[in-house]
Amino acid sequence: MPSERRCTDVCLYEVKPRSPVYLTVTIGKAQVGGTCLHWDGKITGEGSVRSKKIGKRNEDLRGRLLGCTTRIKDVNPRTNATAVTYSFKGGKKPQSFRFKMPAAGEGGFVVYSIDFLFV
Description:
Elements: E1 4-13, E2 21-28, E3 32-39, E4 42-47, E5 52-54, E6 65-73, E7 81-89, E8 95-102, E9 109-118
Parallel strand pairs: 1-9
Antiparallel strand pairs: 2-5, 2-7, 3-4, 3-6, 6-9, 7-8
Protein backbone atom coordinates (compact mmCIF):
# COMPACT_ATOMS: atom_id res chain seq x y z
CA MET A 1 0.00 0.00 0.00
CA PRO A 2 1.37 3.46 -0.89
CA SER A 3 2.57 5.54 2.02
CA GLU A 4 0.99 8.79 3.18
CA ARG A 5 2.66 12.01 4.35
CA ARG A 6 0.98 14.94 6.15
CA CYS A 7 1.35 18.70 6.08
CA THR A 8 -0.53 20.78 8.67
CA ASP A 9 -0.74 24.52 9.19
CA VAL A 10 -2.95 27.37 10.40
CA CYS A 11 -3.16 30.55 8.29
CA LEU A 12 -4.81 33.91 8.86
CA TYR A 13 -7.01 35.59 6.24
CA GLU A 14 -8.27 39.12 6.79
CA VAL A 15 -11.96 39.42 5.93
CA LYS A 16 -14.35 42.34 5.50
CA PRO A 17 -17.08 42.79 8.10
CA ARG A 18 -20.40 41.19 7.13
CA SER A 19 -19.16 39.79 3.79
CA PRO A 20 -18.68 36.26 2.51
CA VAL A 21 -15.40 35.06 1.01
CA TYR A 22 -14.78 32.74 -1.93
CA LEU A 23 -12.27 29.88 -2.01
CA THR A 24 -10.69 28.07 -4.95
CA VAL A 25 -8.37 25.09 -4.37
CA THR A 26 -5.85 24.22 -7.09
CA ILE A 27 -3.83 20.99 -7.10
CA GLY A 28 -0.52 21.35 -8.94
CA LYS A 29 2.40 19.34 -10.30
CA ALA A 30 0.08 17.34 -12.63
CA GLN A 31 -1.16 15.27 -9.67
CA VAL A 32 -4.72 14.33 -8.71
CA GLY A 33 -6.74 14.78 -5.54
CA GLY A 34 -9.69 16.36 -3.82
CA THR A 35 -10.59 18.65 -0.95
CA CYS A 36 -13.05 18.43 1.93
CA LEU A 37 -14.13 21.67 3.64
CA HIS A 38 -15.29 21.84 7.27
CA TRP A 39 -17.40 24.84 8.30
CA ASP A 40 -19.53 25.19 11.43
CA GLY A 41 -18.98 21.52 12.31
CA LYS A 42 -20.27 20.32 8.94
CA ILE A 43 -18.75 19.21 5.67
CA THR A 44 -19.59 22.01 3.27
CA GLY A 45 -17.71 21.01 0.13
CA GLU A 46 -16.01 17.97 -1.32
CA GLY A 47 -13.94 17.17 -4.40
CA SER A 48 -13.11 20.08 -6.66
CA VAL A 49 -13.47 23.48 -4.97
CA ARG A 50 -14.01 26.44 -7.33
CA SER A 51 -15.23 29.81 -6.04
CA LYS A 52 -16.90 28.15 -3.06
CA LYS A 53 -18.83 30.76 -1.06
CA ILE A 54 -17.99 30.74 2.65
CA GLY A 55 -20.39 32.65 4.88
CA LYS A 56 -23.42 34.74 4.04
CA ARG A 57 -24.12 38.39 3.45
CA ASN A 58 -24.19 40.31 6.77
CA GLU A 59 -22.47 37.39 8.56
CA ASP A 60 -19.33 38.29 10.51
CA LEU A 61 -16.63 35.72 9.71
CA ARG A 62 -14.00 37.21 12.03
CA GLY A 63 -12.80 34.69 14.60
CA ARG A 64 -14.23 31.73 12.64
CA LEU A 65 -12.25 28.74 11.39
CA LEU A 66 -12.46 27.03 8.00
CA GLY A 67 -10.89 23.57 7.88
CA CYS A 68 -9.50 22.33 4.57
CA THR A 69 -8.26 18.79 4.02
CA THR A 70 -6.76 18.10 0.61
CA ARG A 71 -5.54 14.60 -0.29
CA ILE A 72 -3.23 14.33 -3.30
CA LYS A 73 -2.07 11.13 -5.01
CA ASP A 74 1.23 11.02 -6.88
CA VAL A 75 0.33 9.95 -10.42
CA ASN A 76 2.88 12.01 -12.36
CA PRO A 77 5.68 9.64 -13.46
CA ARG A 78 8.13 12.55 -13.83
CA THR A 79 8.02 13.73 -10.20
CA ASN A 80 6.87 12.81 -6.72
CA ALA A 81 6.30 16.51 -5.93
CA THR A 82 2.82 17.63 -4.86
CA ALA A 83 1.44 21.12 -4.35
CA VAL A 84 -1.83 22.77 -3.43
CA THR A 85 -2.88 26.42 -3.52
CA TYR A 86 -5.80 27.85 -1.53
CA SER A 87 -6.92 31.15 -3.11
CA PHE A 88 -9.32 33.51 -1.33
CA LYS A 89 -11.27 36.49 -2.71
CA GLY A 90 -13.78 38.74 -1.02
CA GLY A 91 -11.69 39.63 2.02
CA LYS A 92 -9.61 42.76 2.53
CA LYS A 93 -7.51 41.64 -0.47
CA PRO A 94 -7.22 38.50 -2.60
CA GLN A 95 -4.65 36.14 -1.14
CA SER A 96 -3.23 32.73 -2.02
CA PHE A 97 -1.58 30.21 0.29
CA ARG A 98 0.68 27.61 -1.42
CA PHE A 99 1.95 24.42 0.14
CA LYS A 100 4.21 21.75 -1.32
CA MET A 101 5.59 18.41 -0.18
CA PRO A 102 6.94 15.38 -2.04
CA ALA A 103 5.12 12.07 -1.80
CA ALA A 104 7.17 9.38 -0.05
CA GLY A 105 7.33 7.38 -3.29
CA GLU A 106 5.59 6.43 -6.51
CA GLY A 107 1.85 6.34 -5.99
CA GLY A 108 2.11 7.83 -2.51
CA PHE A 109 -0.30 10.30 -0.95
CA VAL A 110 0.13 13.68 0.72
CA VAL A 111 -2.63 15.01 2.97
CA TYR A 112 -2.71 18.76 3.55
CA SER A 113 -4.70 19.69 6.67
CA ILE A 114 -4.84 23.47 6.58
CA ASP A 115 -7.04 25.59 8.83
CA PHE A 116 -7.86 29.20 7.97
CA LEU A 117 -8.70 31.59 10.77
CA PHE A 118 -10.61 34.63 9.56
CA VAL A 119 -9.49 37.85 11.22
